[in-house]
Design goal:
Distance between the termini: 35 Å
Number of helices: 6
Order of helices and strands: EEEEEEEHEHEHEHEEEEHHE
Amino acid sequence: MGSYGGDEVSAMVLEMGYDCVRAGHGGDDTPKAVFPSVLGTVKGSGEGETENRHYIGTSEIQLRREGMEIFHPFENDSSHVRDWDGMEKLWDHALRRICGIDPKEHPLLFVEPSDSSKSYREHVCEMLFEKEAVPALFLARSGVTAAFALGKSTATVLDIGASRSMTTPVVDGYASTAAIRTSTLAGNMLTELVGELQRQPTPSSATSGASSQLGHGHGMLWGAPTTAGSVTASWCQWQSRWQWADVKAACFGKLSEQPLGLGVGEVAMQTSSDGGSGP
């Protein structure tokens, strides 16, 4: 809780991952906003509608719309951003539309990747102060927040996300950035492996109506795709990967949230918003 203008207000927590966005009030057990960190974009027709329409959130993106392209604001991981305007739209959706707050009235804790660059941090601060006008801002590395969540000031955090896995040594509450190691063996690789095991992986809303069949010794049949021109390739691919992620979660389950008792150098297992269970 913080005091601004004589009133006590709760701090907001915002975490941008490669797979999903999380936001909520500080002190709550779970985030209030959790949705995919992608945007659905429909270009303006040019006939009285020149601006593009943007759709955010699982229900909005999964709805089939003519000409809607699925766009990811990140590069190949959550520390390299290709579209800061898209990032701002995701922030606005999480804080204003879902959490229902005005960022001008709440201090903000922004959880960043443990290996984020100086330019990334500077750009985040610039946008949050100048465009969102937050009264106070604190940037926290994801590895440090994971260790603190388990009551540890010194730990080695293993963060298994969608685009990559990362180990972060945390010493006395500070991340040792020089010792951070990353790997591309992560959630997306498992999702792609599940997709390769499927036959004709087509979104259910874009199929010809043929029911899925399971034959002895054969993979899952998703049905034949239609030739409807309104379905874009990016939307179809995203929907397919979303289904593959559901199959992956059902087959492999989730890692235990209990810390591994390894004594000195104890390892804290963290499945972060970078997408441990997402596509």
